[in-house]
């Protein structure tokens, strides 16, 4: 189907839905039609803009033969020859297949990998960076689990980030983040390289993932903390093992066993949902390996070089010399570039 015909069909469908709603349909049919119309109305508005620009272009071309109107027509055509392709590009992006999870909230998981104490310290800084980014975006950031080290580093950090479109913007952050700097524990001033893994999972509802209680092994134990801190004298910590998948989630942040279990189940559902998504998208990923990357946790995606003050994203060859601002949560320049690269790859795959 041609691009123009596809646009005509969307516009026709919008007109059909408006007519249905005007007829006074009720109940579930009304809700369904309203939701569909709401989803496509922004696209229809851009289609109207494009059609209007195309008509103006045809009118201006027709005026070129009129000596009195030629200069005006040429000026109008110069503007329209930029506007029409730009509108077409916007619409092609708007019509790309949507990731069903894009509008969801997300679960963020951060763990130190290679580098010992320094990896733990940088993991804590990354956790704080995402918390600041969430604040800049107006999202809610709730810590689900935060295991700290004696030096103030992070053993494991898990947070729920709530808001519209959180996963769409944060999903590109999954992978290995590398830091290069002189650690506070280094006495001879040598630069060390350490790594931290970041995983961003779309938040799953109970309806997305059916968890059979019979598939769970639930252990309770006493919570403990670094250096004897936060030690709980009651068995409030919870470890849930999902036997079919082998996924294990441990939670001890809350003093209440009930709250720890609820948080652990939230993380378990997110991991199971992501596992389902990964298997569904495996075939598509094999067909089209985006330059943005697979989002695999084993993939090195970004380097933070403190001596040079730079942050480099290896998937899109983008380097920014403003590490202090990036660590303060100013991530949009990377995120916008990653989204644009992913869209470009999808458009190229359609050609």
Question: Can you walk me through this structure?
Answer:
This protein has 351 residues and is an alpha+beta fold. It contains 8 helices and 11 strands. The protein has helices spanning 3-22, 27-62, 70-94, 116-137, 166-170, 257-287, 323-327, 332-350; strands spanning 106-112, 140-148, 154-162, 175-181, 192-202, 216-221, 237-242, 247-251, 300-305, 310-313, 318-320. α1 crosses α2 and α2 (27-62) packs antiparallel against α3. Residues 226-231 and 286-295 have low confidence and may be disordered.
Name its key features.
flat; 46% helix; alpha+beta; 11 strands; 21% strand; 351 residues; 8-stranded mixed sheet; 8 helices; 3-stranded antiparallel sheet
* Biggest sheet details: 8 strands, mixed
**Order of H and E elements:** HHHEHEEHEEEEEHEEEHH
Beta-strand fraction estimate? 15-25%
Overall pLDDT score: 82
Low-confidence stretches: 226-231, 286-295
What share of residues is helical?
Answer: 40-55%
End-to-end separation: 12 Å
Structural class: alpha+beta
State the strand order across the main sheet: 2-3-1-5-4-9-10-11
Number of strands: 11
